[in-house]
Give the backbone structure.
Amino acid sequence: MRGFEFSLAGVELVARGSGALWWPGLRILVVSDLHLGKSERVLRLGGAPLPPYEAQDTLARLEQDIEACDPALVICLGDSFDDDLAAQGLPEPIETWLTRLQAGRRWTWIEGNHDPGPVGLGGTHLFELPQPPLTFRHIAQPGAAGEVSGHYHPKARLSARGRSVSRRCFLLDCDRLILPAYGTYTGGLRSEDAALTGLMRPEALAILTGPVPRPIPMPR
Amino acid sequence: MSSLPTRFETWFAERGWSIHPHQSQMLDRASAASLLLIAPTGGGKTLAGFLPTLVELADGDHEGLHTLYVSPLKALAADIRRNLSTPIEEMSLPIRVEDRTGDTPSSRKRRQRADPPHILLTTPESLALMTSYEDAARTFRGLKRIVVDEIHALADSKRGDQLFLALARLQRLCPDLRRVGLSATVEDPQAIARLLARHPDPCEILHADPGPDPDIRMLETEENPPWSGGGGAYAIPAVLEQIRQHKITLIFHNTRAQAEIFFHNLWLANEDALPIGIHHGSLDRQQRERVEKAMVQGKLRAVVCTGSLDLGIDWGDVDLVIQVGAPKNVKRLVQRIGRANHRYNAPSKALLVPANRFEVVECVAALEAVKAHDLDGDPRGPGPRDVLCQHILATACAGPFAADDLFAEVKTAGAYVSLTRAQFDACMDFCATGGYALRAYDRWQRLMQNAEGLWHLRDPRASQLIRMNLGTIHDSDKLKVRMRYGGGRPLGEVEEHFASQLNAGDTFLIGGRIVRYEGLKEMTVEVTRAAVRKPKIAVFSGTKFATSTQLSHRILRMFQQDSWPALPRHTAEWLALQREVSSLPQPGRLLIESFPHDGRQHLCLYGFAGRNAQQTLGLILTKRMEEMGLDPLGFVSTDYATLIWGLEAVRDPAPLLDRSALLDGLDRWLAGNAVMKRTFRVAAHIAGLIQRNAPQARKTGRQATFSSDILYDTLMKYDPDHLLLDITREEAMRGLVDFGRIEEMLDRVGDRIDWTPLERVSPLAAPLFLEVGKVPVEGAAQERLVAEEAERLMSEAGLA
């Protein structure tokens, strides 16, 4: 899978078509908003039963990225679990799978708004992770610099010869990078939304995910 | 000659009636185990079916249920009850008649189970429900006859399969039950007889006098039909003129959306304010009932309608049927024409209105087929297994059963004669465990075996949910449409999918008026009146029938004539021009044109395989072109052709059509296809994998789609041999995917491919550019376009 190379705060980074971020210098792989256990939570809250296996799908894609990059550290940028109960109630095969992915590397769970407490799974649990010159946290903070975050599930739309194409995307300006959601059942927030246009500089780029990630001026 | 008792003879005589020959034949053969009557509309079919029952019940000795009457329409059951009350009252027969449908209050339904009437009028769904109760044996004790009305309509559908399985069950409860089927004119009465009779019992077939041939022509109009589209709006002045000249006109359309648009335009042109109504399945029931009542009372001069008026009921003095749009299927056309003139022995009168130039050809071909009594119809495959799964669960609701007994019982139903034990066991396993991939989930564990080896529900409370979800009718999920202010009755229903695409301010047609979409409130679409003349959108239902194989062949043969005196001049000239510029498609050959147009390369295949198969062909071919680096962008299909466009020209189309490559492409393409997912969704609902109705609340269609799509992906990935996927493939091959007709085309064509590269669009291909329903291909070409657009945007912003 090809990636789009760019730099943030002087660090060379790669936006992968899958929606994962790769920092080759320190061998760090970053994914955001996995939302594992969503179907269980929806069912618990009395919603329509979503079929199972969404966690398998998310982990299968994560496994591909891990195999391709062989990272020394994996950072899950928050909302990795749909809520704390989901984190505790993961089916056993999913737990085993996670453990297998964690073998031979460090693993950091960043707190999200959906999953604030520490998880009983392997890896460290942090509110945010400073890795100078970058900072990894779940929700972007106005005024920050060198910040890598998730939370918003950004997506962007473009019109290619009259055909409208909508893709999950990274949002990038000289201060920050916002990652797309990685989880299978996650929806998206259009880049035109005020929450995102207010956060990103006017010259920001949207990097569309897909077989080949492609940058465009952030639609606003 | 007949065994008609004096009381009946007197009654007939008093009314100045004489008994029809087929009515007395039915009486003579009343003791036959199964009997099928083929009679045209208006031939006294229903009375023929009931006479033996009335005669047998006349002495008042029978206790309990004697005759079950099953019809595909609820309204028909109520109508028959009214019609039967006349002879029963006038002859003072000691007979109690009741109907029982989904609309019957539950208190009466309970009473009917405990104390059934002599004659019970019902629908296949209500019958399936009744046989699922523990006390079914008591309810049906004494049952002698079952009369299946409009059996030709049921024989083509899963409703019929469900009914015939319920019949097998009834026959076990009442071994001397006699079966009677009443059918309109069909191409293969034997096929229906096989479904009706208990296998391997014989079934006698009676034919009533078919009556005179219909008087059927094409409507002459001043304006020529347009090149494409399906509205028939050009014919409105001529249609209005016909309405003026007749008492009651039925105007049939192939889709609800077209009916709505036509009705709207009809009213805009209706200067004399002739009373004209509209009737289709998306309208609110009360609205439909109002139109029906007005028709019976003779207050309407015309009704614009769809298949919702195809069946049964006598809607008053209809003396003209107008079919707008190509009939697609000769058999249905003949049955529709029969709606005009319910007097026996008078010809029905009908007019065809082709909606576009190609349909002119199709209409003329259909007229010839009607004259030649050449009805079409494709034989149906073996009984669908999703219906069998539902039947197994329903059987379990009625009490513990032995698998061997149920298997033997199911095999007596005509559609399931070839069912193997292995197939049956797979269905049993699915009902018991949900299948391999789902066995860990409680909600799909439904049956278990007791110590004696009998199967029963694991949780008896599950029977409520199973009963709630009995039935095989699968309408897309609908939302009610209501005026925002002033409340009042709903205007009708739209598909949830349609509603989800609306933005506030969009205008659309419903019930003949234009409304503005305001918003969605608790599963209701809120609208306000809109004072515009042209609605923005009107497509809220897309049932599209494919033109039948027989009709397609007839069109191909017609193309071979030197000239076309039967065709209007504009159409004949169009065909002649096509012959001059390119060539006309021939039977036994496949014409493929290729040409550049508007900066893209086009390929047009005239397969004449029907809309669904041409659609599938488009999907598989674009998939193959994608792999070959031809970067297809999209395609559009009609009943006769598929037009594909892309960024690269095709140098040799023959290898694209290699049969094994097509089949291989089909397998891979099927996996992720929306058509398959839709087919899966229906099968999953019928087989009970997903419940549509739950005691708490109704699951919205989007939620249902969401979860059934993901379930589909899940099973494809983790359990590709799951029973439901197997069923889905089988269904799709003959339904929406219709690969059967692609194979029919390949057989017909062999290696005789006429590839014609052209400089520009041919006359026959031109209308395809105006067709709606273009399907985009999301592949390399899209990536190319995205890359192109991304680069353009970046350089425009000075970033690259």
About this structure: Chain A touches chain B through 26 residues (CB under 8 Å). The longest helix of chain A spans residues 54-69.
